[in-house]
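Private note to self, pasted from the team thread so I don't lose it. Backbone tokens:
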């Protein structure tokens, strides 16, 4: 975790910002809850547990700054709530999501399946893709199983 915090610190410094204690507390919460796609309010509640002096406006400003600097990805999954997701160091692009429209569950696809498409866009249109994100909305396996009609015994 410390190495990732140091990387964020360097990213901030390269743009003329400091990693203040408030910003560090926010980054730590995001790192500790990396798989949860937290809203700003979620981040605030978790930050407040450790640092009660930090206000909601400070958390919002920090998340917006981190989003502008592409440290986190600001996402909306159709529920009207902005959520924040740390960008993985290993991926050039952000990962993709499978969102169930019935139960709201979310799964991630960590592989970059769009690289061949990006290469084709560059080759055929001279268009260099800098980033992309894709969300698939549908029905998850769990909900599909619940929605299946019970099998009947056709042998009787």
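Design output:
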């Amino acid at each position: 975790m410390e190495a990732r915090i140091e990387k964020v610190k360097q990213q901030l410094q390269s743009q003329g910002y400091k990693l203040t204690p408030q910003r560090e507390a926010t980054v730590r919460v995001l790192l500790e809850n990396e798989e949860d796609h937290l809203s700003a309010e979620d981040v605030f509640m978790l930050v407040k547990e450790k640092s009660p002096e930090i206000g909601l406006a400070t958390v919002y400003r920090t998340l917006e700054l981190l989003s502008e600097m592409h440290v986190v990805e600001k996402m909306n999954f159709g529920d009207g709530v902005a959520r924040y997701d740390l960008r993985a160091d290993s991926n050039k692009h952000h990962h993709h999501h499978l969102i169930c429209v019935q139960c709201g569950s979310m799964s991630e696809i960590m592989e970059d399946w769009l690289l061949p498409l990006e290469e084709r866009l560059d080759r055929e249109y001279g268009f260099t893709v800098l980033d992309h994100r894709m969300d698939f909305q549908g029905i998850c396996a769990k909900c599909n199983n619940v929605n299946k009609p019970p099998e009947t015994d056709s042998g009787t």
